[in-house]
Amino acid sequence: MENNQFSPYYSHESRQADQARFMAKVFAWMSLALVVTGAIAFWVAMTPSLTELIFSSRITFYLMIGAELGVVWWLTSRIQTMSATTATLWFFLYSVLNGATLSVIFFAFTAASISAVFFITAGTFMVMAAYGYYTEKDLTSWGNLLFMALIGLIISGIVNMFLKSDMFGMIISSIGVLVFVGLTAYDTQKIKEMHAEGINGTEDGKKYAILGALRLYLDFINLFLYMLRLLGNRR
């Protein structure tokens, strides 16, 4: 008989084991997407023809950014009606597009500082993800606060595009690190709770794992970029 959390035979230990398997899939998909993004970013940075194609025109670059936003919107809004395979393909399409645009960091920062900041980000991310997973504290109250802070970050970033203030940029980056540190813990707890509907091993379970991986992927990438602006050595 299969475990079912609504059955009297579905113990607390079984539920925890199923949650652990579900989260393992989420982190596996997220990690694979990060590998794809990193490989594409490095490949584009080392290929002059691709670099020129993407960055020689602002229109091309902004079209790619728009495509990324479109893919995220399509995946999150349509995931209920698409297959798990299709959702996976959209997820990795986003990781490829993001890798292409993120290749710019190799021209702005030294390779050594990119590597160092990546490992710092990875360590910070793992600590906060572990906190979100294991804490018994309900982090729901963090949601609205973090969302408002995120909106403030976006607005501040747009304003600083015109001000071009290094000091203001450092303040924004510092707040950005705090916001995405918090979002990592918050999102991890919320993704863990996705399993509450008994979806592990089903088609929906696969799609929710992809959706959870996307959320944590975005948290990691944004945390990395804000840390890089604070700690990276510019060329």
Automatic annotation (TrEMBL):
GO terms for cellular component: plasma membrane. Keywords: Membrane, Transmembrane, Transmembrane helix. The keyword Membrane applies. Its main location: membrane. InterPro entries: Bax_inhibitor_1-related. The keyword Transmembrane helix applies. It is a multi-pass membrane protein. It is found in: Membrane. The chain crosses the membrane at residues 26-47, 59-76, 88-108, 114-133, 145-163, 169-187. Belongs to the BI1 family. This is Modulator of FtsH protease. It comes from Pseudarcicella hirudinis. The lineage of its organism: Bacteria, Pseudomonadati, Bacteroidota, Cytophagia, Cytophagales.
